[in-house]
Design a protein that fits this description.
This protein is α/β, with parallel strands linked by helices. It folds into 2 domains: 234 residues, P-loop containing nucleotide triphosphate hydrolases (Rossmann fold, 3-Layer(aba) Sandwich); 66 residues. The chain has a 6-stranded parallel β-sheet with strand order 3-2-4-1-5-6, sandwiched between helices.
């Protein structure tokens, strides 16, 4: 039996990158990013990709995979991450998975079901009919089609939530069975990856302060110029990658629709809300062994504790 994967997760701005890199250095490992926005090329500052110096020579996987126009699904991540993990282990090294995208983590530990066949003509027609429907109306559709199940994660947040709602509607209408039924009854595509999850935790006030500082640091690092460059390449608010938290607000500033102070304030509020949703998800959705960490501890203390607990929980 393969040893469990070591997963470092937590809300945005919780310190995942620094801890994952430190663990990789101590284990002779490599880092696999489980962040749904860091897959996009050209979106570096606003997605908080670690710099070359922050990576400290540790190989990283999961960055710069697609252009912002493309969609990168949790299912695709699951397939890619399994390949990266196998290759890392084949080199005699340890994979350290780091990220806060719940759907990506779940694609590893609870693999997605084998999707039912959907008629392409019918699917495209249904998407066109629903294209201009507001999110609140799509939520009502999903509740009516699948009243016993919760709404898809992040349903109210930007383009990603809208896509998940549309997916739930099209599966229910075009197969005759709701999405939850397929999750429960259809066979999984791949075997699950066993994992020990280490979750960095902060108080709401602490994580809010860290988020505020991070947004300011992003502005200082050139985030506005990054967004302007993306816009000039033709990427707008409906571009899949640009639905990432903060990018639509910075795009509104670059386009002259709001002031920089307004864009910063909106980004901070949206990121705080996102962090709260992540925290709730981690409390209720992570399978298997979950170890909670006090984020305010020193990096040395955290890394030492994680390594001791991981070795205890291995077979």
């Amino acid at each position: 039996m393969a040893e469990p994967a070591l997963v470092v997760t937590g809300p945005t701005a919780s310190g995942k990158t620094a801890l994952a890199v430190e663990l990789a250095l101590r284990l002779d490992g490599e880092v696999v990013s489980a962040d749904s926005r860091q897959v996009y090329r050209g979106m570096d500052i606003g997605t908080a990709k670690p710099t070359a110096s922050e990576r400290r020579g540790v190989p990283h996987h999961g960055f710069d995979l697609v252009d912002p126009l493309e969609r990168y699904s949790a299912g695709r991540f699951g397939r890619d991450a399994r390949r990266w993990i196998a290759a890392i282990r084949g080199r005699g090294r340890v994979p350290v998975i780091a990220g806060g995208t719940g759907f990506f983590l779940r694609a590893l530990t609870r693999p997605l079901f084998e999707e039912p066949p959907l008629g392409e003509i019918e699917r495209v027609g249904l998407r066109a009919a629903l294209a201009e429907r507001p999110v609140a109306e799509l939520e009502r559709w999903v509740r009516a089609l699948e009243p016993e199940s919760p709404l898809p994660d992040s349903a109210g947040r930007g383009g990603a939530g809208r896509q998940r709602l549309l997916r739930a509607i099209e599966v229910a209408l075009l197969t005759g069975r709701p999405l939850g039924w397929w999750h429960a009854n259809a066979p999984a595509r791949e075997p699950p990856v066993r994992a020990v999850h280490f979750v960095l935790e902060w108080t709401r006030e602490e994580i809010g302060e860290r988020i505020d500082r991070r947004v300011s640091a992003m502005i200082d690092a050139g985030w506005i110029e990054e967004v302007r460059g993306l816009r000039d390449r033709g990427f707008g608010e409906r571009t899949p990658g640009m639905t990432a938290t903060g990018y639509t607000d910075m795009l509104a500033f670059v386009n002259g629709c709001i002031t920089l102070d307004e864009a910063v304030a909106r980004t901070r509020r949206a990121t705080r809300r996102f962090a709260r949703r992540q925290t709730t998800w981690f409390r209720n959705q992570l399978p298997g062994d979950v170890v909670h960490l006090q984020g305010a501890s020193t990096l040395d203390h955290l890394a030492g504790y994680v390594l001791r607990r991981w070795k205890e929980l291995r077979p």
